[in-house]
């Protein structure tokens, strides 16, 4: 958790791929590979995982889901070691994530007897979970002068940073708002004062990190290899209840 000062670092259960991501990023530091190339890599890994799910190759699907998670951390690490932060990379990463998440759930729906409505509601729940985690984490980063490319509130198109084109930032920001706007607004409506309250304690952030995409993909991978594919979508639908529980804890105690 290099984005936070030592006293506010927490055990991020979704960030298990960070050590490997750092190794990969450092190995690419002096090469022509860019964070965007790594992002494209995790998109490819995600599509391979989808193909494996549909074909019933669940061990391979699990591998590529975890590999996708590792590469998802690597692009940000590479941006840091090369000292090349960008809004292009930040929004491309997010747009790719939500599209892949939808396709993951559709592929699981395809190989199970789950109804399409459960698939749809589970996807909404998955995104609400991830949005709450990102919301609380962005608040911490902003309070402690962390990663400024991640903003608590995404209202206006940011000004392109050095080395990126404003046109690309504009397009990707519009896509981000289109795909994530309803989830951001929902979480903000449910806990609009989170940034004004006390500092969110480490133990609560660790609990909320089960909503992080890395941990979500790990759950999917484990359930696939243990023959529990029929329970994946219902699980994420039911687990969405924890969104309201975590928000309740944050509101009443912090």
User: Based on DSSP secondary structure assignment, what is the total number of beta strands?
Assistant: 0
Helix content: 55-70%
Mean pLDDT: 92
* Strand content range: under 5%
Number of domains: 1
What is the radius of gyration? 18 Å
Strand and helix order: HHHHHHHHHH
- Going by CATH, the architecture would be Up-down Bundle
CATH superfamily: CDP-alcohol phosphotransferase transmembrane (TM) domain
- CATH T-level topology: Four Helix Bundle (Hemerythrin (Met), subunit A)
Structural class: mainly alpha
Task: State the separation between the terminal residues, measured CA to CA.
Answer: 22 Å
Care to describe what's here?
- It contains 10 helices and no strands.
- The two termini are 22 Å apart.
- It has one domain: Up-down Bundle (Four Helix Bundle (Hemerythrin (Met), subunit A)).
- It has helices at residues 18-28, 35-55, 58-81, 87-110, 116-143, 166-190, 202-208, 213-225, 229-239, 241-253.
- Helix 1 crosses helix 3.
- It is mostly helical and 254 residues long.
